[in-house]
């Protein structure tokens, strides 16, 4: 105010006039308003109001001048100068960095490293890791309290959220948060934390002061429709959770899976964006954005453009527009929330492979999109929120984020094919509907049982897929290229290929690339068990269970070898896997009334016939993470598997309740 008095004295010496007093009052009020709103007198400094935050693979510095990006499978993070469009640093961190948070002073970056099991502190200026914390198994999501003193971290396998002291790097508190917590969001005041249970479509709310659970909600199923090509199904795989700028509601990006329709690419997997009340957690089901409804961008012929696998959502600063990223089909949708909330624009097939995260510039005029498989950054320019007819536009070529790729060219192609539903780039999928990852969430399971021509089939994990013998629940495939039948019959791709003939070289290249990626030891590693002791050993109960497994219960008879399956023994005289060897298919009393015989397929020269009720032995490594169980998903728990098995499935009829519990303890701890 001394500055203001000097200004008045210098500019207006006649202080006695009424005009001066009015002018001075007006100027003083304007100046006071400017200062109290955080603006410098000359407009040289603008303090952003506190805003809700969500975990993401890409975050911006407090001043918006730099971006920080987690380069997943390359085990680095990149620092990008926004204006110059340059990577100023690439910093080595632990295995599989997933999400980031930045300290309020912009000096420290916090990184969840999923397969290293750590949160890492990175000194931005020095460009190196300066400390770590171990919050749980497979840390994934991370957000930071507004004052920068606390970190909240979800641990995917442990089923927990940890509160970590950002200075001392100590885990202060840990609470249970569903089975597979992933996406996190924090209110602007830091008072409420939202946590999504990835596969279940559940969201929990916690009071951060005490980590008391305030409530839990579950996304509703979208009702069945007569037209099976219309959006419907069970809500699952919540990829992102974002609070609106006003904090009154939050959106979730997820899938809908139609489990009661035979698998066909146009009728089973649908994208969805759901809207929930921030205070109560109640879902506004009428506001859900689904394909052919609010998600209905038309092409130049007036036909609906299919999009798939939503991965992120961000809002304009004024909350008038929402931008949704479709990671599978690689599209950006724009929703005008003041004009009915329907998709008003789509950028079809963004440059870059598998976009998974976004961040917006402070002024709302630029969007930065992180592409996880091509390891680059796409710039999108945005119109002013009040601009009539303004369009979002890709601005220039993507910026390369890494100096060198840890995957070779074949592995990179395979990973891109696994996650991509972009039909223009990927012939394995039809009309942008679905990718391998649409059912095999994160390469593993979606905890759902789908309807097939053979009967109900529990979606299996791809963990150790090439080390566990024959493929499919009935062991009807012995070569990975046999999945041409899945590609054609379920995913809608490669329709021009005759599966009875040798695979054309250019198409074989695709299957070889997928196999090369899936064979990587760290593509889908065996899940580390949260049921073991703190030092990773079997508990006493599990040791007793192991003795039962190998002895009285006779489980090891079929769950043999290092892979814990006898399917690896199904070989021919040449020592190679063959569907002709049916000695290791078993009737364990689990046949379903809707299961059918299998007449074989063209790729197998129709010699791979299968009788209903005979099944291939699945591996037990990491089995705790693959519920529900059995070929039809009819056993919700491992206890259910054992108690209903009698002596068809091992020798379990004489096990006491205590022995069953010991056996289950061992099964849950197998890695």
Automatic annotation (TrEMBL):
Tree of life domain: Bacteria
Keyword match Transport: no
InterPro entries named in the record: Cyt_c-like_dom, Cyt_c-like_dom_sf, Di-haem_cyt_c_peroxidsae, Host-pathogen_enzymatic-act, Lactonase_7-beta_prop, N2O_reductase_N, WD40, WD40/YVTN_repeat-like_dom_sf
Pfam families in alphabetical order: CCP_MauG, Lactonase, PD40, RoxA-like_Cyt-c
Domain Cytochrome c stretches: 409-522, 540-671
GO terms, molecular function: electron transfer activity; heme binding; metal ion binding; oxidoreductase activity
PANTHER family, per database record: DIHYDRO-HEME D1 DEHYDROGENASE (PTHR47197:SF3), PROTEIN NIRF (PTHR47197)
Protein's recorded name: C-type cytochrome
Species this chain originates from: Paenibacillus albus
């Amino acid at each position: 105010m001394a500055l203001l008095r000097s200004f008045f004295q210098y500019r207006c010496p006649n202080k006695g006039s009424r005009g001066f007093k009015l002018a001075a009052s007006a100027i003083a009020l304007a100046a006071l308003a400017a200062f109290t709103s955080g603006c410098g007198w000359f407009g040289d400094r603008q303090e952003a109001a506190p805003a809700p935050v969500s975990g993401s693979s890409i975050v911006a510095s407090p001043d918006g001048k730099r971006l920080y990006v987690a380069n997943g499978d390359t085990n680095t993070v990149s620092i990008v100068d926004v204006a110059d469009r340059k990577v100023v640093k690439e910093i080595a961190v632990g295995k599989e960095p997933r999400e980031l948070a930045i300290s309020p002073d912009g000096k420290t970056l916090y990184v969840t490293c999923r397969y290293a099991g750590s949160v890492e502190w990175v000194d931005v200026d020095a460009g190196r890791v300066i400390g770590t914390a171990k919050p749980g198994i497979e840390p994934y999501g991370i957000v930071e309290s507004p004052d920068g003193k606390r970190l909240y971290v979800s641990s995917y396998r442990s089923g927990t959220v940890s509160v970590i002291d950002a200075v001392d790097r100590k885990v202060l508190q840990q609470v249970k948060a569903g089975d597979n917590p992933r996406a996190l969001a924090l209110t602007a005041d830091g008072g409420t934390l939202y946590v999504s249970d990835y596969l279940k479509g559940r969201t929990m709310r916690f009071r951060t002061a005490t980590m008391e659970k305030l409530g839990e909600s579950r996304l509703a199923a979208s009702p069945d429709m007569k037209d099976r090509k219309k959006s419907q199904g069970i809500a699952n795989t919540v990829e992102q959770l974002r609070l609106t700028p006003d904090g009154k509601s939050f959106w979730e990006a997820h899938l809908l899976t139609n489990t009661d329709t035979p698998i066909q690419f146009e009728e089973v997997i649908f994208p969805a964006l759901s809207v929930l009340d921030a205070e109560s957690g109640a879902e506004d089901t009428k506001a859900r954005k689904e394909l052919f409804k609010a998600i209905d961008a038309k092409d130049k012929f007036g036909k609906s453009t299919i999009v798939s696998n939503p991965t992120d959502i961000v809002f304009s600063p004024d909350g008038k527009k929402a931008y949704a990223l479709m990671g599978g089909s690689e599209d950006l949708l724009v929703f005008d929330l003041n004009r009915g909330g329907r998709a008003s624009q789509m950028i079809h097939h963004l440059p870059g492979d598998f976009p998974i995260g976004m961040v917006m510039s402070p002024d709302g005029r630029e969007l930065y999109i992180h592409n996880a498989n091509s390891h680059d950054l796409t710039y999108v320019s945005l119109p002013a929120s009040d601009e009539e007819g303004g369009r979002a536009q890709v601005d220039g070529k993507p910026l390369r984020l890494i100096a060198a790729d840890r995957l070779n060219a074949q592995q990179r192609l395979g990973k891109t094919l696994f996650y991509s539903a972009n039909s223009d780039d990927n012939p394995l999928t039809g009309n942008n509907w679905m990718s391998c990852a649409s059912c095999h969430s994160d390469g593993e399971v979606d905890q759902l049982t789908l309807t097939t021509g053979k009967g109900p089939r529990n979606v299996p994990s791809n963990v150790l897929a090439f080390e566990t013998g024959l493929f499919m629940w009935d062991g009807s495939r012995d070569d990975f290229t046999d999945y041409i039948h899945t590609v054609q019959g379920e995913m809608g791709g490669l329709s021009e290929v005759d599966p009875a003939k040798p695979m054309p070289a250019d198409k074989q290249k695709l299957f070889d690339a997928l196999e090369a990626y899936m064979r990587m030891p760290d593509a889908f590693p065996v899940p580390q068990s949260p049921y073991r002791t703190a030092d990773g050993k079997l508990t006493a109960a599990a040791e007793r269970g192991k003795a039962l497994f190998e002895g009285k219960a006779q489980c090891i008879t079929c769950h043999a070898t290092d892979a814990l399956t006898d399917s690896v023994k199904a070989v021919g005289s040449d020592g190679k896997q063959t569907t002709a060897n049916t000695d290791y298919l078993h009737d364990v009393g689990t046949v379903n009334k809707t299961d059918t015989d299998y007449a074989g397929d063209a790729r197998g020269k129709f010699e791979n016939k299968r009788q209903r009720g005979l099944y291939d032995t699945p591996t037990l490594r990491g089995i705790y993470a693959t519920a529900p169980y059995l070929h039809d998903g009819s056993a919700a728990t491992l206890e259910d598997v054992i108690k209903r098995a009698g002596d068809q499935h091992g020798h379990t009829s004489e096990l006491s309740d205590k022995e069953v519990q010991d056996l289950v303890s061992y099964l849950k701890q197998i890695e």
